[in-house]
Design a protein that fits this description.
This protein is of the alpha+beta class. It has a domain at 172-314: Butyryl-CoA Dehydrogenase, subunit A, domain 3, CATH 1.20.140. Helix content is 52%, strand content 11%. It is built from 10 helices and 9 strands. Helix 3 packs parallel to helix 6 (172-203), helix 6 (172-203) runs antiparallel to helix 7 (215-243) and helix 6 runs parallel beside helix 8 (249-275). It is globular and about 60 Å long. The two termini are 34 Å apart. The mean pLDDT is 87.
C-alpha cells in the first residue's frame, strides 16, 4: 500500500459533519460569560459521542483512529473549547472503561513541586501533564486561586504531594497521542484567530473603505492563512502517520505541536493587531484567544521542550520525552 499524507475523503467528511453542530453548541459569544462550558453544552457534546470517539467499539466507543480524533479536536479548538473538554477527550486514552462516559476531567501541568490546574467546577478527575509524562488523578479540592484575570480562567495551585497516587499513567504511545491532540487544538485556535481577523477586516472601515483593503492588513491576513493551513496540514499528516504506524510518526507529531503552537500564538497576536486597541478590551474576543492559546501551550509543556523533542527524533535516536 502506498504511503498516505492526507486524511481520506471519509475522514474529511466526518470532520465537516461536526463543524455546524459544534458552532451551535459552542458559540464564541459564550466566552464572555465563563471560561467553563455549561452543563447543556457538556450534554450536547456527550450526545455527539465526542468523548469516546477513539475508544474501541468493544468498550462502547466509536473505535475511530487518530486521524478522526485529531480532526475533531481541531474543530473544538476552532470553537475555543475549554481545556477540560480537551482533557476529557485525552483522558479517555488513560481511563479504564468503567470510568469513562464524558465526566469532566480538568487539565493541569506540573512544574517542579507545584501543579497548576485550570479549574472546572464539575471535574472529578485531573489530567496532569509534565515535561516527561502525563498522569490521571482524582481531582484535589484543597486549592487556592491564582491570577484569574491573567489567564481568563481560574488557575489553581496545589502541591503535587496533595494529589495522591495517580489513577493511571500515560504510556509513551499514549503521551504521543496526547501531544497530537494538543497540536490539533492549537491548530484550531490558529484558524479561529484567522477567521476573526478576516471578518473584522471586512467590517471595520477607515478613510471610507474596509481596512482589509489596505496592503498591511492584507499581508497580515495572508501570513495568518499560511500559518493556519500549515498547522492543520502538519496535524493531519501526523495523525495519518500515527494511524499508519510510520517510523517517523513521533517526529511528525512533535513537529505538529511546534508548528501549531507557533501558528496559534502568532495568529492570535496578529488578530489583536488587526483589531487595534479594541483587541485588548473586555468587550472583544481577540484577547481571549491569546490567553487560551498560551494556557494550552503551557499545559503541553511549552514550545522549547517540543523543539528539543523534534531534535531528538530528527537525530535518529530513540524517541525521548524530554
Amino acid at each position: 500500500m502506498s504511503e498516505r499524507y492526507h486524511p481520506n475523503a471519509d475522514q474529511v467528511a466526518f470532520a465537516s459533519s461536526v463543524e455546524k453542530p459544534l458552532a451551535s453548541i459552542l458559540p464564541l459569544s459564550r466566552l464572555h460569560e465563563s471560561h467553563e462550558e455549561t452543563e447543556p453544552s457538556w450534554q450536547s457534546l456527550r450526545e455527539l459521542g465526542l468523548f469516546d470517539i477513539a475508544v474501541p467499539e468493544a468498550q462502547g466507543g466509536s473505535g475511530l483512529g487518530a486521524t478522526e480524533e485529531a480532526l475533531l479536536v481541531l474543530e473544538l479548538g476552532r470553537r475555543v473549547a475549554a481545556p477540560s473538554v480537551l482533557a476529557t477527550i485525552a483522558a479517555a486514552h488513560l481511563q479504564p472503561a468503567a470510568d469513562r462516559g464524558g465526566s469532566p476531567v480538568a487539565a493541569g501541568y506540573r512544574r517542579g513541586e507545584r501543579t497548576l490546574i485550570v479549574d472546572d467546577t464539575r471535574a472529578q478527575r485531573l489530567l496532569v501533564r509534565s515535561s516527561h509524562g502525563a498522569s490521571l488523578f482524582a481531582y484535589p479540592r484543597a486549592t487556592r486561586v491564582l491570577d484569574s484575570q491573567l489567564w481568563s480562567s481560574r488557575l489553581l495551585a496545589t502541591r503535587s504531594t496533595e494529589l495522591g497516587p495517580p489513577l493511571a499513567e500515560a504510556s509513551p504511545a499514549q503521551l504521543l497521542r496526547l501531544r497530537l491532540l494538543d497540536a490539533a487544538a492549537l491548530a484550531g485556535i490558529a484558524r479561529a484567530a484567522l477567521d476573526m481577523a478576516v471578518a473584522y477586516a471586512g467590517l471595520r472601515e477607515q478613510f471610507g473603505r474596509p481596512i482589509g483593503s489596505f496592503q498591511a492588513i492584507k499581508h497580515h491576513c495572508a501570513n495568518m492563512a499560511l500559518g493556519a493551513r500549515s498547522a492543520a496540514d502538519q496535524v493531519s499528516f501526523a495523525a495519518v502517520a500515527l494511524d499508519d504506524a510510520r517510523p517517523d510518526a513521533a517526529l511528525q507529531v512533535e513537529s505538529a505541536f511546534y508548528v501549531a503552537g507557533a501558528a496559534a500564538l502568532d495568529n492570535c497576536g496578529k488578530n489583536i493587531q488587526i483589531h487595534g486597541g479594541m483587541g485588548f478590551s473586555d468587550e472583544a474576543d481577540p484577547h481571549r484567544l491569546v490567553k487560551r492559546a498560551r494556557v494550552l501551550v503551557e499545559i503541553a509543556g511549552g514550545l522549547e521542550a517540543a523543539l528539543e523533542r523534534v531534535a531528538v527524533c530528527s537525530s535518529g535516536a530513540p524517541h525521548a520525552h524530554v
